[in-house]
């Protein structure tokens, strides 16, 4: 059984298909249809809802895409939808702001925008335009345009986040912690199909061994597409989002170790301390809704050639810590990917953590090339870790995504850079060597020739950024 709060209602669910999405549950089971389906792939934000979770003595409000969020992941959380915001018939302040500033036209996308604004309202009393754009980047509007919606968001600055949820926050916190104290683990079943929620590594390993064909799910931002787009019906899903060992971040004098189930949003502050360009790139990985669910371990284990974090981890020479029936093992990330969506992860095994060595002597450059600035998949993702000594390249790792069947390092280009000055002239041989490292394919995102040219130009961009005395941005990010 799983338990969660639907607004202030205590809900128990046991007999549900493991691949039931929160959107399907809302619209068909409880018949709360304010939440809309626009894409069923986590791209448009029409289905945005807010989850409140008891964390460090308070409630944390986060937006998620209900179309790709699995019902079982709600265990121990509070689910809030657009129907729950009004108080005694009066609109919530974010709803009233949208009305007053004409932020809605056809209205189909409005519930999703409202919920994104609600989460911003709860988390940030003085939002800047950058805060607003970050909060709304995962919500698409096809008719009104974004100016009145942004105006509505900015109009809420300084008005305080007090509302009906503030009044009940203490009691809600106690109810959620009480659920997890009484039922730390959970499950739902439907016939021979099941969704399992272990709470520690031993339970997770035992369940993976018991169900060797099970799919391990964390944020489900990718796996759910096989359900909503390809109509697959997995028999067993095992959720890692309650396994405490996988949700830790450890900082030491020499390394940063990130648990496999840590979300992108949760790890961003740690990355800002040590790898600013990595943290900045994460702001363009999917949308805020996706970053609130997706995990570093999931992105690595998925082994997509266009995943955004593996190229950076390759450049940073990360180590993958794995647990399986064989025991605990470590793999250098440059040997972990063995083929298209294939890795060295043993059968019935799982990633425990990703460990990144701190490298103060190296400069890290990270670039994501995509058709849209936000909420888009990379055509090319590149990360360069470069150390100079006496003006010459002394150590270098060049990680790329979108250039081969796996995320990969450009070994020939790396060798061509060693001993060279990091200048326009000094990188010429390395740019040429990239054609020996990669033969990228043509697809809907880019041609192979474009990808190769972009990869070569990104090396030049790193040089120009290094030699940019005014620190002026070398990319256009302001479109509105």
From TrEMBL:
Cell inner membrane keyword on record: no
Pfam families hit by this protein: CO_deh_flav_C (PF03450), FAD_binding_5 (PF00941), Fer2 (PF00111), Fer2_2 (PF01799)
This enzyme's EC code(s): 1.3.7.9
Positions in coiled-coil regions: none
Domain FAD-binding PCMH-type: 187-361
Assigned keywords, A-Z: FAD, Flavoprotein, Iron, Metal-binding, Oxidoreductase
Keyword Transmembrane helix: no
InterPro entries attached to this UniProt entry: 2Fe-2S-bd, 2Fe-2S-bd_dom_sf, 2Fe-2S_ferredoxin-like_sf, 2Fe-2S_ferredoxin-type, 2Fe2S_fd_BS, Ald_Oxase/xanthine_DH-like, Beta-grasp_dom_sf, CO_DH_flav_C
Sequence intervals crossing the membrane: none
Protein name from the UniProt record: 4-hydroxybenzoyl-CoA reductase subunit gamma
Species in which this protein is naturally found: Marinomonas gallaica
């Amino acid at each position: 059984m799983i338990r969660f709060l639907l607004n202030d209602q205590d809900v128990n669910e046991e007999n549900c298909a493991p691949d039931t999405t929160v959107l399907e549950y809302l619209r068909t089971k409880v018949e709360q249809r304010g939440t809309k389906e626009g894409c069923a792939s986590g791209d448009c934000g029409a289905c945005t809802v807010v989850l409140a979770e008891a964390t460090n003595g308070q409630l944390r409000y986060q937006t998620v895409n209900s179309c790709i969020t699995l019902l079982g992941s709600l265990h121990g959380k509070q689910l809030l939808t657009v129907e729950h915001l009004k108080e005694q018939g009066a609109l919530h302040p974010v709803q009233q702001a949208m009305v007053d500033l004409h932020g809605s036209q056809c209205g189909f996308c409005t519930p999703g925008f409202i919920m994104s604004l609600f989460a911003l309202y709860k988390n940030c009393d003085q939002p800047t335009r950058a805060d607003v754009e970050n909060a709304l980047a995962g919500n698409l509007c096809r008719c009104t345009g974004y100016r009145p919606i942004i105006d509505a968001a900015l109009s809420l600055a300084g008005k305080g986040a007090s509302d009906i949820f503030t009044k009940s926050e203490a009691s809600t916190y106690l109810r959620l912690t009480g659920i997890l104290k009484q039922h730390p683990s959970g499950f739902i079943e439907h016939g021979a199909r099941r969704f399992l929620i272990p709470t520690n590594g031993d339970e997770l390993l035992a369940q993976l061994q018991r169900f060797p064909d099970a799919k391990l799910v964390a944020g489900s931002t990718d796996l759910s597409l096989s359900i909503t787009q390809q109509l697959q019906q997995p028999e067993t899903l095992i959720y890692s989002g309650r396994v405490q060992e996988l949700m830790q971040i450890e900082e030491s004098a020499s390394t940063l170790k990130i648990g496999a189930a840590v979300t992108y949003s949760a790890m961003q502050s740690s990355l800002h301390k040590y790898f600013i360009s990595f943290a900045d790139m994460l702001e363009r990985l999917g949308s805020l809704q996706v970053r609130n669910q997706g995990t570093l371990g999931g992105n690595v284990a998925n082994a997509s050639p266009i995943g955004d974090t593996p190229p950076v981890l390759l450049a940073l020479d990360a180590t993958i810590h794995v647990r399986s029936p064989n025991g605990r093992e470590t793999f250098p990330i440059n040997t972990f990917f063995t083929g298209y969506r294939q890795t060295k992860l043993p059968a019935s095994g799982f990633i425990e953590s990703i460990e990144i060595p701190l490298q103060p002597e190296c400069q890290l450059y990270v670039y994501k090339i995509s058709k849209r600035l936000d909420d888009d998949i990379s055509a090319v993702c590149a990360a360069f870790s470069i150390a100079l000594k006496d003006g010459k390249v002394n150590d270098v790792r060049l990680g790329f995504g979108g250039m081969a069947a796996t995320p990969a390092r450009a070994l020939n280009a790396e060798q061509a850079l060693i001993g060279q000055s990091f200048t326009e002239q000094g990188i010429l041989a390395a740019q040429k060597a990239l054609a020996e490292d990669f033969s990228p394919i043509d697809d809907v995102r880019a041609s192979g020739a474009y990808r190769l040219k972009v990869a070569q130009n990104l090396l030049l961009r790193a040089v120009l950024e290094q030699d940019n005395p005014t620190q002026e941005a070398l990319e256009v990010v302001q479109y509105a």
